[in-house]
Amino acid sequence: MASGMEGGGVGYVVASYVITWVVLGVMLVRTVGSVRRARAEYDQAAKGEFRT
Amino acid sequence: MSPAATNQFGPPKPAPAWLGWLAFLFFTFAQVFSLMTSPADAMMGHLQKNMYVHVPAAWVTFGAFGVVLVASLYFLWKDDERADLLAASSAEVGSLFCGLTLVLGMLWGRPTWGVWWSWDARLTSTLVLFLIFVGYLSLRSFVEDPHRRGQWSAAVGILGAINVPIVWMSVQWWRTLHQIQSSPRGLAPEYLRGLMLNLAAFTLLTVWFIWRRYEAARYERAAEHAAQAAALGGYHG
What we know:
The structure holds 2 protein chains of 2 kinds.
Chain A: H1 5-51
Chain B: H1 17-37, H2 51-78, H3 81-113, H4 121-142, H5 146-173, H6 189-236
Helix pairs in contact in B: 1-6, 2-3, 2-5, 2-6, 3-4, 3-5, 3-6, 4-5
């Protein structure tokens, strides 16, 4: 492969890592958020159940 | 009422907090280690470092869809809704990694092959795999009955997971643009260490993501069960 690609290759590598980290970061935030919301819903529903 | 709809279960066992911390710290370490210690390849230069994200993302995609296969078969066999929720959680995580694999592959393909995309056997079969699981997730969103949703999505999940060996073998069966599977024997130790570390780190992250998504799904269903029980209690009271 052309050695001249090395310089251009860095940009693609940086993009690969940035995209990976952003995707995983967004996934982390969404996952933790969904667990918290679901748990809060469950706690509320369970309280309602016990009141009846 | 259908059998699975009568499955009653309480809240899930939460994923231990240390597992999440361990997964993200290990991932950070693996990424930094491989970036810092891996020398530029004689042919590909620094582009070789794409391997530490592209290959692990593909690896965990296959693993996640393997979980979908096993959980879907178990759901169809035992009619246990928890297996359906596990399959769905795994499909969500697997789809995300499958999409990431495709994008990272394009970022490697453009400077290497000169094109962002080619209708190569590996790329096309991976795209088909991705679309099947996007369809799987869409199907789940518009079927309300839990039992029917479980059965339909299990069928699609099993069909989708059957595509995994086709993706894996595609580079052997059809010799097109994508190179054949990487083997640890063909890698120099300075590249192999980073790859193995990242494979382990991505696997740990995936386990944690699936566990937490499953936890959320279990809470959602447990909340529905509790709400139903409250409504029935109120009605009979």
